[in-house]
Amino acid sequence: MNTYMFPISSLFILLQLFDAATSTVRLPLQASHQNFHESTQKRGVQSPLRDDGSRDAFNHLTLPLKEGGQYLVLAPISIGTPPQNFTTIVSLIRPQLFVISSLNPAKSLENRTHYNSSLSSTYIELGTDGYNDFPVAQAEGRFSKDNISLADLTVARQTFLEATYIRSGEETRYSEYEGILGLGFGDNTVTEIFEQGLIEQNIFSLQVPREENGVGVLVIGGVPEIEEDITWVEMTNKTNDMDERYRELKQWGVDISSISFGPPSLNISLPKREDTTPAWIETELMWISLPGSLVQQIHEHIGANRLGWSEFMAVDCEGRDWYPDLSFRVGKEEVEVNVTAWDYIWPIDMGDSGDMLCLSLLIDGPPDDVFLGMGFLRGWGVSFDGVGERIGCEYFVRVIEDIC
């Protein structure tokens, strides 16, 4: 089966054209681990979102996340003794971890932090070559072991990839990341922390930044201080057939029995199927991808217009106040999950002109899968249980109120 390609490259060409025409479109970029901390502090983010992480009432570690430009989510980690600090892209696709190696000769990476094994007293050489394949970057190098730290949690002797060669996609070209923190289902860093007895539950919770300059949170060892309100559903047993690179993986996803837009009177919904549709949750995808003709019907209802020659649909920014919700029925319990227009519409600040361009994050996708990217995650706090193989969610506003 061929890999289904989402429209990414054209978006960056589009944004570059806006930049050339107005000199005002500037999406935030993450330059270094130090800048991550500085920018967090400058925005006045205080405890419990300190740059070194903190503990909530349940003794869960809360780590700050930052929007890294072009919808990517960044988290700070450290490797080695003494610690070497890195800014990493958070991924829910694969459980592996890689950082740039000091043996990587690429000049395009020379201003980023590189892992130097000779500076770490806890480094263990494995002597095997490896390859990590993520949607936004592919890395080749050598597998090694060292201590990995997320704030005050340190997992000893975790295997990771020292990347001596990285092929970045369009979506990471302008985001100066220094590695990828893979939190996909399986033996990820949180699982390693759990197995070493450092946390009581193999659960992590994610709330991505909702705005370009916002801050999100990664809670390790449980869910935020709203445990009684989390609604859990079982992971899907289906496989992701859209991309042959990940077909063998068990991924974070749920089963969806129905999709609808607005009240029943609109008659905009996915036709009832004999079987459920798998929905995959991804941080490396900005879109909400829906099957069938559903997206076309939604765009016609909200008056979306194609933006020039691109695949993208522009909408009235003020319409976010009254456009209908996109609703999913999730899991065997058919839990209702609603995505508001403030989440499935992406505003782009045009800078000094004061203008705002709003794009729909809804796109036509493959016929048998749903993909819930940043257009979904911007509105929901999501928890991932690696032992119970279940996923929980809580609406964004409640999560942020209770954490912050």
TrEMBL record:
Against InterPro entries, the record matches this protein to: Aspartic_peptidase_A1, Pepsin-like_dom, PEPTIDASE_A1, Peptidase_aspartic_dom_sf
Kindly state which keywords UniProt assigns to this record, in alphabetical order: Signal
The source's superkingdom equals Eukaryota
Signal sequence, renumbered to the chain: 1-23
* Molecular function via GO: aspartic-type endopeptidase activity
Keyword presence, DNA-binding: no
Query: Does the keyword Cell membrane belong to this entry?
Result: no
Peptidase A1 domain sequence ranges? 73-394
Q: Which GO terms describe its biological process?
A: proteolysis
Q: Which CDD domains match?
A: pepsin_like (cd05471)
The family assignment reads: Belongs to the peptidase A1 family.
Q: Which PANTHER family match?
A: BETA-SITE APP-CLEAVING ENZYME, ISOFORM A-RELATED (PTHR47966)
Q: Protein name, please?
A: Peptidase A1 domain-containing protein
